[in-house]
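FAQ

Q: What does a record look like?
A: Structure on top, sequence underneath. For example:
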């Protein structure tokens, strides 16, 4: 079967439907079957896998997903793409398109209704870059029961998500995502595989969702408050960031100092040097010292 994702076929489809790209919706469509093949391979799909796609566009990735997975449910915000998707995905009976903003959609209920009985559930997508982080955090924080997430995103965001401590990319996003998943930057993608080409470099990231979070903490919300606060000013010490950033921090400077000591963390260190387990020990120690 002829692929949608060739430059000439994509141009023809867009021209026939009088479609013009909306930059504000992050519309950069894939026009290289080779990359699509590598994405589905990275996701390790089988006919027992259910797939949630976010932003099918004209269906370039969707058809590769439909060929390799058991069922695909795709959320597309742009109503103008529906007649195109009707045409391009016509040969595939295992695809359902939902015309909704994925950030507003009740994804959990959709999963319950559409994927009962599937052994594995994956999110696979070429994400709209203006909402990359909110989409990934919604999937993780809402605890959508997926086994993994394989998505195209800005390389710079992929580097931050997969960063290790003591690197300039490591920050609260690395911690938030690595708390829930094992993150790996799978491969970098050239701008030439998109129509139109995006302004930034792209990459595919693979997130394997953990059965249990990477570390156990007494209070998840406070753990994330502590990590965000610790990176508020990267040049400052962890002690200064916590004193200036935590609610009531200035009055509780001594308790913060004691918590750092109890967690075995030198107060003069910078947030970017702390591992996930050190942040977990620190947030629990702060709670024990009455800082929260
Ligand atoms: C980067 S394009 C990917 C298109 C297609 N999957 C491909 O690879 O060629 C992103 C797609 O996400 C859609 N989109 C943008 N914001 C969205 C949102 N909040 N919810 C669902 N879809 C969205 C856009 O309309 C566009 O079709």
């Amino acid at each position: 079967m002829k692929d949608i994702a060739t430059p000439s076929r994509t141009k023809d489809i867009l021209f026939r439907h009088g479609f013009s790209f909306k930059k504000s919706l992050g519309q950069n469509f894939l026009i290289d079957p080779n990359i699509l093949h590598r994405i589905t391979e990275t996701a390790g799909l089988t006919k027992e896998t259910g797939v949630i796609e976010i932003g099918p566009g004209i269906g370039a990735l969707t058809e590769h997903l439909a060929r390799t997975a058991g069922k695909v449910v795709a959320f597309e915000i742009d109503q103008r793409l529906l007649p195109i998707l009707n045409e391009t995905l016509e040969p595939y009976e295992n695809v359902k398109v939902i015309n909704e903003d994925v950030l507003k959609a009740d994804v959990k209920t959709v999963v319950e209704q559409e994927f009962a009985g599937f052994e594995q559930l994956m999110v696979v997508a070429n994400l709209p870059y203006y909402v990359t982080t909110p989409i990934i955090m919604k999937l993780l924080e809402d605890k959508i029961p997926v086994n993994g997430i394989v998505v195209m995103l800005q390389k710079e965001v992929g580097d931050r998500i997969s960063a290790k401590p003591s690197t300039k990319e490591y920050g609260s996003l690395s911690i938030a995502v690595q708390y829930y998943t094992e993150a790996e930057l799978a491969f970098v993608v050239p701008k030439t595989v998109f129509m139109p080409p995006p302004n930034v470099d792209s990459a595919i990231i693979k997130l394997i969702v953990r059965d249990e979070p990477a570390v156990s903490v007494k209070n998840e919300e406070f753990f994330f408050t502590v990590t965000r606060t610790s990176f508020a000013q990267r040049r400052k010490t962890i002690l200064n960031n916590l004193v200036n950033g935590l609610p009531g921090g200035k009055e509780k400077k001594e308790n913060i100092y004691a918590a750092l000591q109890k967690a075995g963390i030198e107060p003069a260190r910078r947030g970017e040097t702390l591992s996930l387990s050190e942040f977990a020990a620190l947030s629990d120690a702060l709670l024990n010292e009455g800082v929260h």
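Q: Is there anything notable about this one?
A: The mean pLDDT is 97.
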